[in-house]
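Question:
Write out your own:
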Amino acid sequence: MTEPDAAAYRGIFPIAPTPFTEAGDLDLEGQRRVLDFMIDQGVDGICILANYSEQFLLSDEEREVLLDLCLSHVAGRVPVIVTCSHFSTRVAATRAARAAAAGAAMLMLMPPYHGAGLRADEAGILEHFAKVAEAAPIPIMVQDAPLSGVALSVPFLARLARELPQVSYFKIEMPGTAAKLRALIEAGGEAIAGPFDGEEGITLLADLDAGATGTMTSALLPELIRPVLEHHFGGRREAALAAYGRVLPLINYENRQCGLRATKAAMMEGGVIGSDAGRHPLEPLHPATRAGLLELARPLDLLALRWGK
């Protein structure tokens, strides 16, 4: 990467999947292998306990185990972002304090929501993030994603950044991400330390053009997405276009056909983990979908397909 502001995190910060055994238990040794593998992919940081980590299928006790395991095993080799989202401000703040004490570099939170009907208004969201910031004196990333069903306007996000200096990173993965990133950067100015995109990088090039300085993808192919960032940051647009065009069919297949199951399918194929099992009620990949994923992945020589062999 080009040299950024030393105070700012930028680059590729993929989400670590949570491996389970076929019986549905946590595979703790597999989790350690996942983290080592991701560092070998050349990531700039790792996010844990996110939606693509299947956090919604974990008990509170399992979260605690994974938090301590991941941060102790990474041991400062790369920064670790810990997702602490919860509808309860008290719970989110408690999670944040634990994560900071364990060595997290940053927190990520969605706005408070529960199901289709429970939402906080802007005053409640602002107070929610303020309480989390008070509990944990490290940077906070707001995850602005359709899953929450909460409308976060650009003026409100910029207000969060101005009034709560810790809230300085924003992962935008809404329809029209590039336009929203561009508007947020303009509205927030220097208060926006890290405009990131997500959604597996499916709109990455447009988002970089809009000013994104980081991306939070899955852990399927960070080593092949990283060159897109490096070329773009270095002003080598044709090389960025070529690198992105090479991987976009696989990103599209992951995003539209597989979701969070793609990474674990590839990792199992390459011996990173022993099983790509999820937990009910998530359904496993259909064999034909898995075959389609691997068909697109093999010509790219993904590290995931050979790391453990």
Notes: Residues 1-6 have pLDDT under 50 and may be disordered. The beta strands are 11-12, 46-48, 80-83, 106-109, 113-114, 118-119, 140-144, 167-172, 194-197, 214-215. The chain has eleven helices and ten strands. The first helix runs from residue 28 to 40.
